[in-house]
Each structure stands twice: as structure tokens, then as C-alpha cells.
Amino acid sequence: MEAEINKMELMFQKADSDLDYIQYRLEYEIKTNHPDSTDLGLSPWTKEEKTVAEQLKSHTSDL
Question: Where in the sequence is the domain holding 50, given as residue range(s)?
């Protein structure tokens, strides 16, 4: 049972890492290919999104 939990934790960590990389690449592509475009900018996170991100980070750091 614990081995399965560890496997799932690793899968979540990899997914989180993959999402971070995708976000970085998208931001880079937008800045590189559309530097003067205002409508392609990234909107700041809402308060709710920040709260969820903090919860996820604290949860994954506990693992």
C-alpha cells in the first residue's frame, strides 16, 4: 500500500514539474514572438488561485 502511495506522490511531483516547465515555455514564447502585444499577456493570479497554489506547495513539501 505504501509503495503505491509513494508512486502516486512521484507522479504528482512529475506532473507539477511538467506544468511548471510548460508555463515557462509559454511565457518565453509569448515574450519572444509577441513582445509588443498587450492582449497576449498573462493575467495575474486571483486570490483564490494563489491560495490553492500555496496549499498545493505546502502539501507537496510535506511529502
Answer: 2-62
- Give the Cα separation of 7 and 3 in Å (integer): 6
Q: What is the residue-averaged pLDDT of the chain?
A: 80
Is 52:5 a contact under the CB 8 Å cutoff? no
Alpha-carbon distance of 27 to 21, in angstroms, equals 10
Please tell me the distance from the alpha carbon of residue 18 to that of residue 35, in angstroms, as a whole number: 25
Q: What pTM, to 2 d.p., does this model score?
A: 0.54
User: What's the number of domains the chain is made of?
Assistant: 1
Per the CB < 8 A criterion, the answer to whether 61 and 16 are in contact is no
Asked if residues 12 and 56 have their Cβ atoms less than 8 Å apart, the reply is no
